[in-house]
Amino acid sequence: MPELKAIYIRQRKYIFLLLSLYVLGWGFTSYQTIFLGLILGTSLSLFNLWLLARKTDKFGEAVAKGEKVRSLGMLSRMATAVLAVMLALEYPDKLHLYSVIFGLMTSYIVIMIDFFLQAFNSRSK
User: Fold this and answer.
1) Name one Pfam family in it (predicted).
2) Strand ranges inside 1-80, DSSP E
């Protein structure tokens, strides 16, 4: 599934761009708790995206070989979300809870935006 790897690499670049903007915001503004929450949430969101891409690749290989198909790892992705929220609740003076939650949703937002951009680009060709 080389196209899946290309999609993952493209989306990873977008998330790294967002993370670099968040780091600049953390370093140069007075909203450090908000940007630190965004950094934590988006970092774990990138980890979840990596897990999803890896599990999807293994899922495709198992289907092609006719083997038994396992899950796509929803429990592990939910566990990282719970970990992020627990950290935000434990350290409210350092991490803004809502920005952690928004950061966790970043990869899904990037997936949707990337899908629409690719659909628009393929339609205009």
Assistant:
1) ATP-synt_I
2) none
